[in-house]
Amino acid sequence: MTQATLERRDGPARPAQPPPSPLLVGGVLGAVAVTIVAGWAIDFSLAPVVEQWPQLVMILEEVVHPEWAEITDPSSRLWTALKETAAIAVIATFVGSLIALGVALLGSKVSAPPAVYRVTKPVMAVIRSLPDMAYALVFVAVVTGPLPGILALTIFNIGIVAKLTAESIDAVDPGPLEALDAAGATRWQRARVAIVPAVLPHYASYVLYVFELNIRASVVLGAVGAGGIGQLIMLYFNRADYPRLAAVVIVIFVVVIAIDLLSQVLRRRLV
Amino acid sequence: MRPKPPPKWPYTVAGLVLIGIVLIAGWSLDDARWERLPQFPGEILQYAGQMLDGVFTWPGAHPEGQADPELTYGDWWLQSLRLMGESVALAWIGTCVGALFSFPLAFLAASNTSPLAVRVPVRLFFNAIRAVPEILLAVIVMLPLFGLNPMAGAMAIGIHSIGSLGKLTLENIEAVDPRPVEAVTAAGASWWQRIRAAVIPQMLPETVAFWLYRFEVNIRASAILGVVSAGGIGALLNRVLRGREWEWGGIMLVVIIIVTILVDQLSAALRHRILHGAEATAVAA
């Protein structure tokens, strides 16, 4: 091989790489600036990881010896709370999803008149912007126990399922709709015959998705007194009863993974 | 001849089974106190009315029944804004932590960039941390480490985000067009060169969009972490609403709604720009 072929003097020069776009540079610089400000706002520091390590090890030593009696005894507090959590999630998913289907029909320009969907959409955005815990806190003021948990999750579900379903309705195939319009169908008939059947698989997969979310959320909602396993988490945390807390973690872990797998299989069949 | 419509009974049976499950679930809740349900609309409306009173009172006025006579509604607004800012900041740092760790790990978990023996444990790791709710991570690991401050919340959110971002990122990696990858492989590229030249350019925009989306989710998640005092607006919201200080609580909820919607809109605009480029943005605007 000669020097000439290696340097390729005879070939065309390699084009220069274009400079990065100013937008990209600005975006990256902006993200770095936001990160610095955010880090300063929360006093970012990893020093405690080193300083407090012995304390964490102490707690983890208790955590790795879970109180197995909590798990093996079917009448323990853990199982009662778990049943409550499951019931809350089932009821909230069912009621919330049913209402959400109606709200979704009102929230898409395909199925609702402009005056209706222009109001529905922003109202739904406001409802979604509050975390589920805020609803639970307000409802707990009326009555404690599972009922405020169910209501909080129901509202949360309406927000999510209605938004996703409305987006699916927006994307529905216009062919059958035009056919129905040409045949003189009413809005209700259009929804019944063309829209709902078309979005049903998507809708069902969204419902499964929020059911998953609800299991996780109802775990947490108990922390504010809205029933379910979260109450146990707070109880054991406040007592620093780490072996029992570890038992709760194991059960939640298994339940969440099982529900994840189940709903993944179901969703794959649906869509 | 008109074809026979498909049978309807499977749907009827499925519906009845579902209703049955829901009824059993309702039955099993002994202390649900369903009889209190009719009272909810009235009481909630009453609370909402008091909240709106708080929101629409002139910020310079002094609320009644407070220990500090100098306190104004304006102080409540400022305090809510400051704490909501802390929530947003800790959600951002948490998202950064999640993005930083999930990005390289996802390449070890995708079927087109990693061998089976590496893939399986990394995927198990993603699924395992996704299954532990943030609040448990916070109380067991982060609060003992960082104490009752926003760093604990940020790290709990960050670790949890590694799981969900990792899963989404690896799906993005697996969805890349294989042809550029084959081309650079044919040209003799190493594993790293293949990823650098053929995989990352294809999956980066969608992955960054997912980071932004996760940031929105994490802002909401940070509220619950406040209940265990891991930083953000949640701790005060918990105290105020439990103390039935509806005017104060109303101001906090309004601040949460406004800041969340603003951040959502900003993030949605950025995501749209990242995914669809400048032309589509101009058309949409």
Question: Could you characterize what this model shows?
Answer:
The complex is a heterodimer of chains A (271) and B (285). Chain A has 271 residues and is mostly helical. The mean pLDDT of chain A is 86. Helices cover 77% and strands 0% of the residues of chain A. Chain A contains 13 helices and no strands. In chain B, α3 (73-109) packs parallel to α6. In chain B, 39% of the residues are buried.
Relevant terms:
heterodimer; A: 271 residues; mainly alpha; MetI-like fold; B: 285 residues; 78% helix; globular
What is the structure about, briefly put?
Chain A: Its main location: membrane. Chain A: InterPro entries: MetI-like, MetI-like_sf, PhnE/PtxC. The complex is a heterodimer of chains A (271) and B (285). Chain A is 77% helix and 0% strand.
CATH top-level class of chain A: Mainly Alpha
- DSSP helix count of chain B? 10
Write down the domain tally of chain A: 1
End-to-end C-alpha gap of chain B: 51 Å
Topology:
The complex is a heterodimer of chains A (271) and B (285).
Chain A: H1 3-7, H2 22-41, H3 47-51, H4 53-63, H5 68-72, H6 77-106, H7 114-129, H8 132-140, H9 146-170, H10 174-182, H11 187-221, H12 229-239, H13 242-270
Chain B: H1 9-28, H2 39-55, H3 73-109, H4 116-131, H5 134-146, H6 150-174, H7 178-186, H8 191-227, H9 234-242, H10 246-284
Helix pairs in contact in B: 2-10, 3-4, 3-6, 3-8, 3-10, 4-6, 5-6, 6-8, 7-8, 8-9, 8-10
